[in-house]
Amino acid sequence: MPMITDICKKYLTENIINVSAIPGGNINDTYLVETAAGRYVLQRMQEGMSLSALEYNYNLYSDVFDREKILYPKWMKQQNGSYFFTDLSDEERRSFRMYKYLEGDILSTPLSEGQCYQCGYGLGKLHSVLKTLPAGPRAIYPHLHDISYYYKQYREAPDNIRDHEIEEIIKKTMPEMLSTEHSFISVIHGDAKLSNMLFKDGKVIGFLDLDTVMTGSVPEEIADCIRSCCLSDNSLNKSAASKLIQGYLDASGEDKDIAELIPFSFKKICFELALRYYTDAISGNNHFKEHYPGYRLNRAKELLRLFMQFSF
């Protein structure tokens, strides 16, 4: 594979001062590229992603976001006019893209109730804007939030490495999860967590990682945002969650009936993520990175503890 700096030069003409890995990503490899003119982000795409579908979705939302003044990663083109560089010498044919680094305030949990309200308000505004897209997005991850698909993967995993406690929870919980129907379907971000929000002066001004934009369940998206923003020591701050929901309703104008679906949606999201991490751990799949030995199994257990203790 070419050196990362060589790939950067496909997009940049200025001298590159430094390239460093950005830690924390669960899926894609991401690099911060520094030049005298500014900072950029180089991202290696996940294997198997449809580049044509990615570009189609990008063209759908970029004009709308520009009009509504929502910040987002604006992809750069190589000198040959293409957004993506694909390494033809790599057996996996992994592709890269670059965009200018977006400046914003960094927030970390635990958030104040006011900050949670602003997270909900920002998400509500995003959903309102996504409703104005000229067409529906193409599915980049066709099975994202499809719990029947994740259950199938789990059942196909080897039987020799299993955790008895987790197995019992899955056995008891799966029938209810499989029988639940989605509601309030609309275009959503797909991964509306705190680290994918851009802030300035305490307000959400933009979003990152828009590859997951999809048609999906609005209550589940709100619940996933709550999971990311309203936890402290793996326990839910119910008052903060209520503020986030209120912010969402104030910005989106959605029917308040949607709030009644969020408690179950929260449990479903926690269970779904736990199942995915657990399946990765027992099967040896590498959808989520193993940040340290046992990381994915530990994440599954944390999410299931949250699932078991939760009630609004």
Automatic annotation (TrEMBL):
UniProt keyword Methyltransferase present: no
Residue ranges occupied by any Aminoglycoside phosphotransferase domain in the UniProt entry: 19-230
Gene3D superfamilies named in the record: 3.90.1200.10, Phosphorylase Kinase, domain 1
UniProt cross-references to SUPFAM superfamilies, sorted A to Z: Protein kinase-like (PK-like)
GO MF annotation terms: kinase activity
Transmembrane segments: none
Domain of life of the source: Bacteria
Alphabetized UniProt keyword annotations: Kinase, Transferase
InterPro entries in the cross-refs: Aminoglycoside_PTrfase, Kinase-like_dom_sf, Pseudomonas-type_ThrB
Tagged with keyword Kinase: yes
Protein's name in the database: Ser/Thr protein kinase RdoA involved in Cpx stress response, MazF antagonist
Organism: Butyrivibrio hungatei
